[in-house]
Known about the structure:
Chain A: This is RNA polymerase sigma factor. Chain A: Keywords: DNA-binding, Sigma factor, Transcription, Transcription regulation. Chain A: Belongs to the sigma-70 factor family. ECF subfamily. The complex is a heterodimer. Chain A is an all-alpha fold. Chain A is 71% helix and 0% strand. In chain A, α1 (4-11) crosses α2 (16-38). Chain B has 2 domains: 3-56 and 91-135, no CATH class; 141-237, Sandwich (Immunoglobulin-like), CATH 2.60.40. The longest helix of chain B has 16 residues, at 94-109. Chain B is an alpha+beta fold. In chain B, β2 and β3 (163-169) form a beta hairpin. Chain B has helices at 10-14, 20-30, 34-47, 61-70, 94-109, 121-135, and strands at 141-146, 152-158, 163-169, 178-185, 191-197, 203-207, 214-221, 234-237. Classes of the chains: A mainly alpha, B alpha+beta. The interface between A and B is large, with 79 and 46 residues.
Amino acid sequence: MRSDGDLLALTATGDTAAFSALYDRVAPWVFGLVRRILRNPAQSEEVTQEVMIDVWRTATRYDANRGSAHSWILTIAHRRAVDRVRSEQASADRTDLAGARSVEVDFDQVADTVSTRLEAEQVRRCLGSLSELQRESIELAYYNGYTYPEVAQQLGAKLPTIKARMRDGLIRLRDCLGTTEGQRS
Amino acid sequence: MTDPDVHTLTGPYVLDALPEDERVRFEAHLTECTFCTTEVTELRQAAVKLATQVSTPPPPGLKANVMAAIEDVRQLPPQVPAAGSTPKAQRFTRRSVLTLAAAALAVAAAGGVAVDQYQDRSAAERANQQMAAVLAQPDARTVHGTVEGGGQATVVLSTKADKSVVVLRDLPKLPKDHTWQLWMMDPTNKATSIGLSTGDTTQVVNGSTTGMATFGLTIEPDGGSRTPTLPAAALVPLT
């Protein structure tokens, strides 16, 4: 079976069949993440579509030395979704949204594949090994699209503390997951 | 007043949690900080695993839309490295230099410093490269001091690289036939001159930091002095 990295490399040559296979592989991750951040189904579809078109358009710029294909695509997805949140916040009342969102993750929505389940289980276990402040800081930023000052506000903690907890939480997560380059590329 | 270590920003950066202005500054820093770039790549690989928790099948119609849309989307041409490509530090564009200058100065001065204080482009580039090289060190830190009569002295230093960069700005006018002189002092206050400055614009001076405890700025007769004339205009502890 071709890896995400192989499919992305083929996509870069204009191979639409490879892109189609890549879509099947990564779209659930992209859509799930975007949906988690934006909540609104119509907006989530729109942004997912933008992300996938962006993957097609910029596939030639992917550099395998800077991380796996999977990581590259989800980075694009996360930033796009967060950009959408921030641009809307510029005009919306922030406090309503803050109250309406929860940090909880919808585990029952996890896509129904064995490897995904195993991986999700491992991530859940590793998240559990973080300190509460590390975990909450990371989750509020990653799943809710909060900036670190917003996270600090929400958690009633100082800015340098939150910055540091995000970093040392991610380091712990990295070590726990044994994340190595190339697993998916 | 000490700045938070810029290197801890890898965490919020990977989570897309930096406010826009800080993100721009940090990305400028990333172009020069190999340590940070490696950490960003590693932490990102961990962060994206968080998406496994929320994986959701997209609506069935979405794929057809995407496949139809890409028919009309031209792919970017691959990026070709410039022929006879030079080391990164020499490849700065005007824009990236300014971004970097803004980043370095913001780190150095912890506040807005107008980049247009630079009047000479080549001097600005040199200054930026020197600052960037020091800032790229994992142990880089900055110390600040106010100058008697007005203005600021900022020292960016790395013990590991044994380098420091001094940024002077908004200094008061010098008496006729006088110059600013910059010093590094050891714990016994033995001073070593690290250069002269007219103080007209932001200036950068390189100096070794081994065994040094304090940065000093004095006003001296033209041509400088062998020992500092006291009282000093500024004394900035390096720790």
